[in-house]
Amino acid sequence: MNLRLILRVFILSITPIGECRISIPYGIYNGLSPWESFLISFLGNTLMGVAVYFTIDFISRALTSREPLKSYYERFLKNKLRKLKIYPSGLIFSLAIFIGIPLPGTGAFTGAILARVLGLNFKEAFFAITTGVIFASCIVTILTLFSDIVF
After folding, report:
1. Backbone angles phi, psi at 109, to 5 degrees
2. Under 8 Å CB-to-CB from 122, ≥6 apart: which residues?
3. How many domains does the chain have?
4. CA distances (Å), origin 2, targets 9, 27, 40, 113
5. Which of 92, 112, 135, 141 could connect to 100 by a Cys-Cys bridge, CB 3.0–4.6 Å?
6. CB hemisphere CA count around 99 (13 angstroms)
7. pLDDT confidence tier of residue 89, bands split at 50, 70 and 90
8. Which pTM was predicted?
9. Listed ranges 29-33, 68-72, 105-109; the one with the highest mean pLDDT
């Protein structure tokens, strides 16, 4: 096992822009098995979501104390809350679906921020983040393996 590759995949999975959308294909195309890439990316992405959940209060206080950042942060939240469709099954399920869609701006990073803003406790937020990251990781892994066959 190449520890450098594992570390790169892990670091890519904790970036807000990349998350599992970049880390899983990177790992697979550079020699990790799909399971290894999935597991490393899942762990990194989930840990990043939990870290954001616990630090978002501090970060939001810092962002909202200065005007250019305050208006950006408020627009960011309004935009993401607008994209969050609340399903009849509940807020946790809706947040998990939002996190699980592997598109830019809909991952564990944004989901953790929304969980905190929406007032979810840690147990609810952790369930939504974990479920969403599993869902997104499965989609990305399947698409990566399928694209390898097609191309």
Report:
1. -60, -55
2. 53
3. 1
4. 11, 11, 13, 33
5. 135
6. 34
7. low
8. 0.82
9. 29-33
Q: Of 21, 28, 65, 67, whose CA–CA distance to 44 is shortest?
A: 21
Q: Is the pLDDT of residue 102 over 90?
A: no
Phi-psi region of 119 (alpha: psi -120 to 50; beta: other; left: phi over 0): left
Residue 120 sits in which domain range? Answer: 3-150
> Do the beta carbons of residue 6 and residue 87 sit within 8 Å?
no
When pLDDT is cut at 50, 70 and 90, the band that residue 59 belongs to is confident
Six-digit token string for 120: 């979810």
CA distance 150 to 110: 32
Q: What DSSP letter does each residue of 14-58 carry, written as one string?
A: TSTTTHHHHHHHHHHHTT--HHHHHHHHHHHHHHHHHHHHHHHHH
